[in-house]
Amino acid sequence: MAHRHAPLVHLCLLLLFICTSTSADDCVCTSQYFCNCNSKNLTGVPQSLNSFVTILGLGNNRINTLESNDLNRYTHLEHLYLYGNRMTMISTGAFRNLEKLYELELENNELVVLRAGAFQGLGSLHTLELNINKLQTIEAGVFNSLSSLVVLYLHYNELQVLTPEMFQGLGNLNQLHLYNNLITTVHPRTFSHMAKLQYLYLFYNKIHTFDLSSVSGLTNLRRISLYNNNLTSVPQGDTTPNLSGVTHFNMLTNNIAEISANSFSGFDSLQYLRLSYNKISTIHEDAFKTLHDLRELYLNGNSLRSLDGQIFSGLGSLRSLSLEQNEIEFISSDAFTGLTTLTYLKLEDNKLKIFPVEPMSGLRVYNLYLQRNLLTSLPDMAYRLLDRTSRVILHQNPWKCDCRMIDFRRLMRGRSFEYQIVCDSPDELRGTWLKDVPLPNLTCAIPLITWFEVTNSDPLKEGNTLNLFCEVWGSQNPEITLRLPNGKHVLSTLEQKGRVQVLPNGTITIDDITGKDSGTYVCIANGIGGDTEKSLYVPEIMPNPFAQDSLNGVHMSKLAGGILGAIAVAALVALVVGTVWYKRRRTQTDEQVLVDNAQVNETPEAAGETAIDVAGTTEDTITETRA
Ligand SMILES: *[C@@H]1O[C@H](CO)[C@@H](O)[C@H](O)[C@H]1NC(C)=O
Ligand SMILES: *[C@@H]1O[C@H](CO)[C@@H](O)[C@H](O)[C@H]1NC(C)=O
Ligand SMILES: *[C@@H]1O[C@H](CO)[C@@H](O)[C@H](O)[C@H]1NC(C)=O
Ligand SMILES: *[C@@H]1O[C@H](CO)[C@@H](O)[C@H](O)[C@H]1NC(C)=O
Ligand SMILES: *[C@@H]1O[C@H](CO)[C@@H](O)[C@H](O)[C@H]1NC(C)=O
Known about the structure:
- The protein is α/β, with parallel strands linked by helices and 627 residues long.
- Among the domains are: 20-158, Leucine-rich repeat, LRR (right-handed beta-alpha superhelix), CATH 3.80.10; 448-538, Sandwich (Immunoglobulin-like); 574-598 and 607-627, no CATH class.
- The chain has six helices and 39 strands.
- The protein has a 17-stranded mixed beta sheet, with no helix packed on it. A five-stranded antiparallel beta sheet has the order 34-33-37-38-39.
- It binds 2-acetamido-2-deoxy-beta-D-glucopyranose (5 copies).
- One 2-acetamido-2-deoxy-beta-D-glucopyranose binds next to loops.
- The chain crosses the membrane at residues 559-582.
- Keywords: Disulfide bond, Leucine-rich repeat, Membrane, Repeat, Signal, Transmembrane, Transmembrane helix.
């Protein structure tokens, strides 16, 4: 058929001015209700079709305007396809007789402006597709007559500013697709009257601020999608918005730097919150407190350096927490408090140096991702945590296979994660699976100082006792020496000799301190393969008005208070490091039996790096001399 008509079409093309009204022969009508005139090079609406047609395809033609009378005779139309034409405008009243029209496809045209009255008469319209045009202007009230409209496609246009006037009359709208425009500004209350709105898609625009008052009170609203915009903060309203129906809120790829307190109040039913690939470095402790129904929280690809306080404590329904691709170095011990339903924890591609034993001890996750961090060591508690996790990814961490790994190594029993722990140092073990390293080869001939800190919890005052703790790991019980700010050295001993006591386990006490006791302290560990030292600055010691009158009752009670305080601190320290310490001592005992003294290959530099890695807060210096 098409072949036989080709010469006629060519003739028409040549004599275009004569053939403006195309004959019905161009269309394929399979019944009186359905005519397919798609892709026929039509320049206008055919006028000779059966007026009972309900489905009319005019897509992919060359129609460039729709005049007000063009569709007058097709009053039974329900579906009209005008996509892929060259329309730059729609005349007022062009559809005014199509009161049965249900679906109107105008996508992929050249529309720049929608004038008031363009859709007049379309009282039954359900779906209007205006996507892929060049729309810059939507005149006030253009959709006024579309009281039945449920779906409105406006994506891939050039809209810049959205106002409430543009969308008047869309009280029945369920889905509004506005993605891939050039929207910078959304005026307050733009969507307020869309009581039935369920899906609002605004992604791929340039929105800088989004006022939640524009959607507040829309109790049917389920999804707000604002990804790939230019938001610099989480959207807020003037007052707490009522967004009790919203389950999905997507702000992926914006410029948000901070999540402040109560950022999500009003989002009472939120289940999926995406904040990935922003610039978030700060999260207020109360930011997520109200999100009791949240199931998935995405914070990956941000600039978080630490997880402080109980930031996730309100999230009692959370199943998946994505924190990968940040710069997280530190996770506070209570950071994951309250995450009782968490099964999926993603922490890969961060800067964790210490395995988060304490933060994780209350969790029961099934999937744990820790690959590509800076982890060097695994304590035995880590084995217990990993052992109860179904899926563990740990590879590409710079594991240091030394004496600190002995207890972990001892617990290994062939779990699959054991095949991910490949030694990075010392040199002679690089590339070897930890599971294949014999216990005697896990040595610390040059000791490691992993911690040297003040353990007093209160500010230091004259007359108090200063408590320090120097945690040392090493083969064959390294000897500890303390250098005082005045340059004097005190060797560790179990005997009480004077005001300064250094115990072999690293517990240090300095009684009855004065201003002269502030300054730099150095903990020196002398091992079989060399010395390691780590310094600590003890800041100013406050004068204590009661310290002068040394024998009055006030002083004595202060002193008693101080002693009680010191005991409390010591108990705390014992609690925190007790397990580790116990293991170290066991380790050393074992090593005395097992270690081959001659085998000392570790460099002092390597030991120093580890000391910095693990503690990171104090200055480190390593003596170059070897014993
Ligand atoms: C429409 O016009 C183009 C170019 O003018 C021509 O190549 C094409 O074959 C025509 N299509 C039909 C269906 O006639
Ligand atoms: C986003 O906002 C920032 C700051 O207001 C501006 O400098 C930048 O050009 C914006 N980016 C885009 C893509 O609009
Ligand atoms: C939010 O709106 C819903 C429905 O109108 C209502 O039931 C609920 O009480 C409102 N919540 C608040 C906090 O105002
Ligand atoms: C462990 O040490 C022994 C003795 O030095 C050595 O022969 C062996 O190769 C070492 N094993 C590994 C896995 O490095
Ligand atoms: C260190 O040793 C002393 C004396 O044996 C003991 O009282 C203290 O609890 C020990 N500290 C730790 C942290 O093990």
